[in-house]
Input
Amino acid sequence: QLQLVESGGGSVQAGGSLRLSCTAYSVSITKYCMGWFRQAPGREREGVATMGRFTITYADSVKGRFTISRDNAKNSLYLQMNSLQSEDSASYYCAAYSPVGVGACSFERTSYNYWGQGTQVTVSS
Output
C-alpha cells in the first residue's frame, strides 16, 4: 500500500518561497501519476501541479511561480513555490494514482486514490 507523507509547509510573507516535499513509502512512485493539490477553508480541493513519467502540467494560477519535480532515487515528489501570494494559503496535499497509458496526468482529484495527510501553507500580505 502506497503511503505519502508531506513536509515543508509553514508561514511566509507574500513574495517569499517554500518547498514542499512528499516522501512515498512501500511502493516506488516511478510509474505513478503524482500530483499536488490544495484546499483553502470553504473551498474545493483543487489541482496545483501534476507529474507523470513524461508530462508536467500546472494550474494557470501557479504557472511561472511553482515547479513540480521528483527524485526517483529518494522516492519523493517536490513542489517549489516562489512569489507566494496570500491566495496560495491552503493545506497542500500530495496524491498519486496508477495511470492507464502515458498521457498527461489527471487534474481531477477523484482520479487519485492515494493521499498524504496535508501540510499547511500560510502566506501573509
Q: What stands out?
A: The chain is about 0% helix and 50% strand. The first strand starts at residue 3 and ends at 7.
